[in-house]
């Protein structure tokens, strides 16, 4: 045909009208994903578009669309101290430095955060399985005391029934170092590990969960009463975070689905050898 190679492969550029239509269609798909889980960012949206729509989209394009159509949420922040390490109880060493984790129920991390309401603060204690990122125990209270953390621990033990040798990692706060809490751990043959003083990186996974909780739930709602908190926080943990919220560190899967794969030998082989090397500690 006596035409150049570049002419053969030439594709006409979309008109501005077609581009706007394409952007609007992609925006609609992103909004549909966010209608179920409102705070997914562009990194999380990318694999979800592929999973639900079989649509491959560059993350830069997703970021551009989300900025263009205002699909990012504005975050409001507050601050309060929850850790009191000035106490007479024994401080345990950090057992996680350089540890390699290969399965669930090998390491649990725990921490406390606060949720502001007009009349004060509500406190949440949680325990997270470090390997699967699943919240395995939690408790909510108006008081920041050892019974709050002990309630979360009892729920985790009853639900997971861990074998002896599990490591429980926390900060040095009095709620975790007190005799009542330590007794529960010792009675269940659980090893005790604590982060260094004033070093948030030594409990980074717990801090990461609370950041997700605050950004994707707490800051989006105006909690007026204690009842508002105990109605929405359990829903976020059990029905969204554990079941729907995907994590890049576990192959963009939700914690519950990841644990299900781990329990099935054939499916576990499909994702290959999974290890978590805690060099950050």
* H/E element sequence: HHHHEEEEHEHHEHHHHE
What is the beta-strand fraction?
Answer: 5-15%
| Number of E-type strands | 7
Biggest sheet statistics: 5 strands, mixed
What strand line-up does the widest sheet have? 4-3-2-5-6
Number of helices, where a helix is a run of at least 4 consecutive DSSP H or I residues: 11
Helix share of residues? 40-55%
Approximate shape:
elongated
Distance between the termini: 66 Å
Reconstruct the topology from this structure.
Blueprint: H1 5-9, H2 16-36, H3 42-53, H4 59-68, E1 100-101, E2 107-117, E3 120-129, E4 135-141, H5 146-160, E5 167-170, H6 174-177, H7 179-187, E6 191-194, H8 204-216, H9 226-241, H10 255-263, H11 265-270, E7 276-277
Parallel strand pairs: 2-5, 5-6
Antiparallel strand pairs: 1-7, 2-3, 3-4
Helix pairs in contact: 3-4
What does this structure look like?
The protein has 281 residues and is an alpha/beta fold. It contains eleven helices and seven strands. The protein has helices spanning 5-9, 16-36, 42-53, 59-68, 146-160, 174-177, 179-187, 204-216, 226-241, 255-263, 265-270; strands at residues 100-101, 107-117, 120-129, 135-141, 167-170, 191-194, 276-277. The strands form two sheets. A five-stranded mixed beta sheet has the order 4-3-2-5-6, sandwiched between helices. The protein has a two-stranded antiparallel ribbon with strand order 1-7. β3 (120-129) and β4 (135-141) form a beta hairpin. α3 (42-53) packs across α4. The radius of gyration is 23 Å and the shape is elongated.
């Amino acid at each position: 045909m006596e035409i150049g190679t570049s002419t053969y492969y030439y594709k006409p550029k979309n008109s501005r009208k077609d581009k706007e239509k394409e952007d609007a269609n992609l925006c609609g798909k992103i909004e549909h994903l966010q209608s179920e889980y409102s705070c997914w960012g562009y990194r999380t949206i990318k694999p979800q578009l592929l999973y639900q729509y079989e649509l491959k989209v560059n993350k830069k394009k997703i970021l551009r669309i989300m900025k263009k159509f205002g699909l990012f949420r504005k975050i409001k922040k507050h601050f309060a101290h929850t850790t009191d390490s000035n106490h007479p109880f024994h401080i345990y060493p950090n057992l996680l430095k350089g540890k390699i984790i290969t399965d669930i129920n090998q390491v649990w991390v725990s921490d406390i955060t606060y949720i502001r309401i007009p009349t004060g603060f509500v406190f949440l204690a949680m325990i997270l399985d470090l390997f699967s990122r699943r919240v395995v125990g939690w408790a909510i209270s108006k008081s920041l005391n050892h019974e709050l953390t002990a309630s979360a621990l009892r729920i985790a033990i009853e639900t997971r029934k861990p074998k002896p040798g599990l490591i429980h990692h926390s900060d040095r706060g009095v709620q975790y170092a007190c005799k009542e809490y330590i007794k529960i751990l010792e009675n269940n043959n659980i090893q005790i590990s604590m982060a260094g003083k004033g070093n948030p990186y030594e409990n980074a996974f717990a801090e990461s969960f609370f950041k997700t909780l605050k950004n994707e739930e707490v800051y989006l709602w105006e909690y007026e009463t204690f009842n508002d908190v105990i109605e929405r926080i359990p829903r976020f943990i059990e029905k969204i975070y554990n079941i729907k919220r995907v994590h890049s560190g576990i192959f963009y899967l939700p914690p519950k689905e990841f644990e299900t794969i781990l329990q099935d030998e054939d499916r576990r082989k499909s994702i290959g050898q999974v290890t978590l090397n805690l060099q950050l500690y």
